[in-house]
Amino acid sequence: MNFQSLFGPYLIISVLWTSDALYSSDPVLQFAIPGDRVTLSCGFPSIGSCSSLNWTVRDMIWDTEVVTAGKVTYFKANKHRLLKDCSLEIPQMEREDAKVYTCQSGALNSSVSLRFLEINETKSPAEDTIELHCSLSIFIGFVPCENNTGIHIKWTTEDDVPITGKRFRFENPNFCFSKLFITKKLTDHHRTWKCQITQNDGVKAVASYKTTVRDGLEEVFNAVGESVSLLCRNTSSLRLGDSIEWTLNKKPLADMLPENGQTNVLNVSKDLSLVISKLSPLYAGDYQCMSSSDEQRVFYKFRLHTLDVIAKSDPVDGNLSLICVLTCAKECEENFNLTWSGSNQDGWEGNLLNVNNTLINELLLPVWPVRSDVIICSVYREGSLMASKSWSSVKSLQTLVWLGVILGLLLCAAAGVFIHWKRKHNKDLSSESADELSSIAMTHVYDVIQDGEVQQQGSLKREVPTTDDGLYNLLQTVN
What we know:
Elements: H1 3-7, E1 12-14, E2 28-31, E3 38-40, E4 54-58, E5 63-68, E6 71-72, E7 81-82, E8 88-90, E9 100-105, E10 108-122, E11 129-138, E12 141-142, E13 151-156, E14 168-174, E15 177-183, E16 191-199, E17 202-211, E18 218-223, E19 228-230, E20 244-248, E21 251-252, E22 266-268, E23 274-276, E24 285-291, E25 298-313, E26 320-327, E27 336-342, E28 349-355, E29 358-365, E30 374-381, E31 384-392, H2 393-478
Parallel strand pairs: 2-10, 18-25
Antiparallel strand pairs: 1-17, 3-8, 4-5, 4-9, 5-6, 7-8, 9-10, 10-11, 11-12, 11-15, 13-16, 14-15, 16-17, 19-23, 20-21, 20-24, 22-23, 24-25, 25-26, 26-29, 27-30, 28-29, 30-31
């Protein structure tokens, strides 16, 4: 029997089981999946020796002994083992092992009904609907449960949040059988749904199933500043010699490569994954990986949304506001929601806005946090947590302090440069003034010297005529 076709490629079941009988005449229900190591307890208070103990397995019509007088008698491929406490072990369970087992010792007997939980996807008559079936089954398939077993089936999202919303519908034909109808969206591709079996308000088993939508997109949410890896799936049909190319919003990523000297945050790893080493809102959009051949076959698609938290301080009243921004690849859907959480929520006020392709939740704080508070903004899709971005008051205060120190140093440096320039400028002016004064003084001295020379020449001129006149007068006297 082909287990893959029965369970689907994405069925994951976690194993839990009960330890008490449902009621006195009913066998104990125990749940497992093919491939698990299963231990079936005999259920007796105390057994001195296993030599008086028998284990039988019940098919539809007859019983088959697998342990007789404490010895394994059914040796089909080492199917069963008897443990020291007389428990029956199935090292590797198969689908056909989901039957009723009975432990008998004298007049005492105890039975265990071994079942497995499975989710199957059934083709729905409506093309826009996904139909999932969850059931507790035995080797022949589904067997109805009695209504007094206390068993219930619940459908949840991947993080165990109950499924609610207008596009979901449930039908419960039996306590051990439930149907989930989902109005299909492209982003339901590769999305996980869970089916829980509860008994007496306790979870006994959980099955998970990932849906596949033709031409669908896997939706990814991630915080700004972190790295994200997008794995190109379904590449088994890649031809020899072809390579993988990635596009963002149908544009080749080669057009987004950084210029020389800048760090490249987009890289394709060996497993053909696209790795964005440092995410920013610019990288929100629809991604697809395709072959490099002329056909350009698309192998897989992603829709990436980014989440960021920005702090802003009012310079007037000093109030702090934190802005949580979800940048959507397209328009943000109605089932997206942003919430705040933290250690101190006194006086918090949030305002949710939907602007173009962004969903914004602004948190107003009356005072700047002085403690080491960590405030977290989370994005939810249909009640399921998708991503979170934290903001730390201590880190932000330290950042502000460092910014203040750096700003102070820059101001001091600017003041020093200004003072140096001012002094140099004043010194240059003083030098120019001294040169001008020296020039004026020298000119004055030169003028004084010239005046003195003129006066001296005038005096000499006056002295010469005086001598002539004296000689003339002397001659006159002599005559």
